[in-house]
């Protein structure tokens, strides 16, 4: 492949002849615009070139979040096809729960238009923020372009794949071109830890999302943590970090794949006390218990089902569990137990991007990320209690 520099005095991003042709519009206006976006980002972040990606994850799917402008933009790209495996974030509803989610006809129609527009581009309508369980599983060291901050931090930290924190548009541009600018977390040296975080206490399950909220709010960079937990604990911690701040990667000693090379010469040490994370705790009573932000893992689904088996739900409380369709389909036995209990297992949507935050005023969840968003006016302004799974489940049992 021939590579050369274009207008070096203006731009340092090297483009191949093929990439330059796309940029000059020889493959149509749509691809030209996508290439312009990638090159502009590359210029800003001083990328040396574009690199091939193996997959993309697209956010900006719910009509509740992208609205009419987003739909119009997607329509303008019709005719283009993605070059790599591309999966999609949750949308505004689960088609089988339209009534509970108070989905009006207009929202339904607009949302379906969005999904059709994405599908026409060859994007798989997976509608989950946890594509890494079954739908889109990157490997260690693979370059990808993912939007959805919880999936980005999971892919970088727990899988060891490489992605910057893409936005809806830049991830779509990368999917349609099949490449992304080579900067940031694609580079070895940018994946080193900047802060060493130690806890002065042994964390319980409920502490992980609260710790994530604190770290996201107080630290800019890549934290290296010394603590023990499960993959689900770290998933919840990472999602909260990414929501309350700009963190896109962390290391956990003896757990994440790159922790051995993570500590460089310059690192700031921080000790977190239990009182630091107390601000995020709340003792609210709840109307809805919402599990699955990020979408529940197979093991979370199993734990919920095992705990609720043979029990009955209180009539004054709701239990909604959000999972990827692919996780639900593979765990029908657990789903049946939760539904027999009186809970609802929803796919394609989540507690934040559906109308749930506008329907319930007091919500309990294991998710720091859900708490971060649901308490904002735009998402309903609910009072949110974050605690561990079994405490929440106990509160809905008769
Ligand atoms: Fe996923 Fe919705 Fe939470 S997209 S991370 S379940 S806000």
Work out the strand percent: 15-25%
In CATH, the architecture of the largest domain is 2-Layer Sandwich
Q: Could you name the CATH topology of the largest domain?
A: Aconitase, domain 3
Strand neighbour order, sheet with most strands = 14-13-12-15-16
What is the makeup of the main sheet?
5 strands, parallel
User: Roughly what is the average pLDDT, rounded to an integer?
Assistant: 95
Task: Give the number of helices.
Answer: 15
Q: Give the helix proportion (percent range).
A: 25-40%
> Stretches where pLDDT falls below 50 for ≥5 residues?
1-9
Bound ligands, named by name, code or SMILES: FE3-S4 cluster
Alpha-carbon Rg, integer: 21 Å
Work out the number of β strands: 16
Distance N terminus to C terminus?
66 Å
| CATH class division of the largest domain | Alpha Beta
Question: Which structural category do the helix and sheet elements fall into?
Answer: alpha/beta
Number of domains: 3
CATH superfamily of the largest domain: Aconitase, domain 3
Please state the overall shape, judged from the principal axes of the Cα atoms.
globular
Which helices and strands appear, and what pairs or packs with what?
Blueprint: E1 3-5, E2 14-16, H1 17-23, H2 29-44, E3 50-52, E4 55-58, H3 63-76, E5 85-88, H4 105-120, E6 145-146, H5 149-159, H6 168-177, E7 179-181, E8 193-199, H7 207-218, E9 223-226, H8 231-244, E10 251-252, E11 263-272, H9 274-278, E12 288-296, H10 298-308, E13 318-323, H11 325-330, H12 332-341, E14 344-347, H13 356-359, E15 362-365, H14 368-374, E16 383-386, H15 389-396
Parallel strand pairs: 4-5, 4-6, 8-9, 8-11, 9-10, 12-13, 12-15, 13-14, 15-16
Antiparallel strand pairs: 1-2, 3-7
